[in-house]
Amino acid sequence: MEKELTHFDENGNAVMVDVSEKNITSRTAVARGTICVDQKIMEAVENHRVKKGDVLGVARIAGIMGVKQTSSLIPLCHPLSVTKCSVDFELNRRANEITVFCTVKTDGKTGVEMEALTGVQVALLTIYDMCKAIDKRMVMKDIHLVSKSGGKSGDFSYEG
Fold first, then answer.
1. CB 30 within 8 A of CB 157
2. Is residue 129 annotated as a catalytic residue, yes or no?
3. How many CB atoms neighbour CB 60 within 10 A?
4. What residue segments make up the domains of the chain, in order of their start?
5. Exposure of 10 by Cβ count < 10 A (0-12 exposed, 13-18 middle, 19+ buried)?
6. 150 neighbors 158 (Cβ within 8 angstroms)
7. Which of 122, 121, 127, 123 is nearest to 144 (CA)?
8. Which of 42, 107, 120, 146, CA to CA, is 20 to 30 A from 131?
9. Which CATH entry fits the domain spanning 25-149: 1.10.1370.40, 3.90.226.10, 3.30.70.640, 3.40.50.720?
10. Percent helix, strand and coil across the chain, each rounded to 5?
11. Which listed residue (129, 135, 142, 155) is catalytic?
């Protein structure tokens, strides 16, 4: 079964998907991404010694703000009424990696995958921005949708 691209009309023009006939359902999406840092950055983040401030606290707020701005950033993305958004972090001291998790919920006619992915990316970019004076060799990687529930296409879980 071949999936059709829904953001193009019969003439190949980009369009916003018409969701007016869809049912309102509870929808959730979780995304994640990782930033690789050096040991100096990891220690500075953990010990709140970054001159720009509380890196994870600021990155959390930035990620939430990114979620709220997704439809302004991504063409053809519907503006949504977000009912929940959380941004959490997991620090792997051995590998010098910070992983960001963003969970977004809504009750609506379209999903929140783009919002969760945007929240992760904005949080990662904020970590980079706040730590780049220490070392600019940070690498963002493995940004992907972990899971989603609700809607016509059903549930999804990343198996990778």
1. no
2. yes
3. 21
4. 25-149
5. exposed
6. no
7. 121
8. 146
9. 3.30.70.640
10. 30, 30, 40
11. 129
> pLDDT tens, 26-67?
999 999 999 999 999 999 999 999 999 999 999 999 999 999
> Side chain identity at 38, as an amino acid letter?
D
Phi, psi at residue 84, to the nearest 5°?
A: -155, 140
Residue 145's pLDDT band (cuts 50, 70, 90): very high
Whether 17 and 110 have beta carbons less than 8 Å apart is answered as yes
What are the tokens at 159? 């198996």
Task: State residue 1's pLDDT score.
Answer: 45
Decide: helix, strand or coil at residue 13: coil
The per-residue b/e assignment along 83-103, b for 16 or more CB within 10 angstroms, e otherwise, is eebebebeeeeeebbbbbbbb
